[in-house]
Specification:
Shape: globular
Radius of gyration: 12 Å
Helix content: 40-55%
Distance between the termini: 11 Å
Order of helices and strands: EHHEHE
Largest sheet: 3 strands, antiparallel
Number of strands: 3
Strand order of the largest sheet: 2-1-3
Structural class: alpha+beta
Number of helices: 3
């Protein structure tokens, strides 16, 4: 099976702290990795946060969206085939 990229879109409302937290908790990134990815999303407007099988990518996207909505953030997550 092919891999799918999980992509976060920068929105100007979701805090960088929240994105770092999600990257560590849901995507298993180290604090340094999470910070670097967050900065790339902030600078480029979007960024790939990980590549997984379709099921795993979809699940992580759903978990991230639920976590964002619980904190009232509009963070958008896309899952795209490589």
């Amino acid at each position: 099976p092919g891999l799918y990229d999980v992509i976060f879109l920068n929105d100007g409302i979701t805090t960088m702290e929240f994105v770092v937290k999600v990257l560590k908790q849901i995507f298993g990134k180290t604090p340094e990795q999470a910070q670097n990815i967050t900065m790339r999303i902030h600078q480029d407007g979007q960024g790939i946060v990980g590549s997984y099988t379709h099921e795993v990518a979809e699940q992580k996207g759903i978990e991230t969206t639920l976590a964002a909505r619980q904190e009232n953030f509009p963070l958008q997550v896309k899952v795209k085939k490589q």
